[in-house]
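Case study 2.
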Amino acid sequence: MALRGRTDLNRLLDWIGLVVRLGLAAVWLASGIAKASNSRETIVAVRAYRILPESAVRPVAGVLPYLEIALGVLLLLGLATRLAAVLSSVVLAVFIAGVISAAARGLSIDCGCFGGGGDVAAGNTQYTAEILRDVGFLVMAGFLIWRPWTALSIDGFVASRNRVTEDEQA
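Prediction:
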């Protein structure tokens, strides 16, 4: 049964997309706010990966929380969802690579993904869980790249308005 060209499957995907979008928004907002609320810990976390030159640690630690918050806000509103999902994918891929790199080099660090971070005692790392979690978030971002127009989103509202306008012109 179709309603204005929308199938039951499309409506279901709209609502699944809403859950995915809000879930990823919550992740970015929680992570960004935790990092922004304690910039010293964020600097320690970025430095602990021992990837960036010292001159880049503070700028990255300064920008990262606000990038995450911006992604969270865009996803929460459903505004520029595909762009936010693409940027989310890039950031998540960098995070996954960073954790893999730390594990491969034998570093014992907390990822600092939701605040905190830095060195931890040997054997207290959670690399596998962190990588799997971030791969799950990457899958969520991939869903939104594939299907960015979700229920209760600004993007969806604009798309539906454009469909109505096109139907009226036909």
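Strands lie at 109-110, 118-119.
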